[in-house]
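Structure tokens please, single chain.
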Amino acid sequence: MKRKNFFIVLIVLVGVLVVVGAFVPEGKDDSGDFKLTGELATLSSNPRSVSKTVAVCDEDNFCQDYKVICRNGEEISREAVPGAVIQKPSDWVDDRNIDYDNLCR
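Here you go.
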């Protein structure tokens, strides 16, 4: 009896995993490549590649974090980090002295 119950529970668990797995996103971008794998391949294929985040603030002191990928000092891509935003007070002064057009230099 115990063995029969064990196999029933095992079959139900496997079935649930298969059903749940059918609805989990694959982590692929529009071209069908895996996002993380492609990004790691880009960075590892060139040791002069760097990935970093930087907060970019506008004239109204609204700041958004971006993930920036650089290769040999040139910007390859800039992607907004979802939800990574902040509104600074109107009297706040950004003293970081960042050149937003040359984030990779």
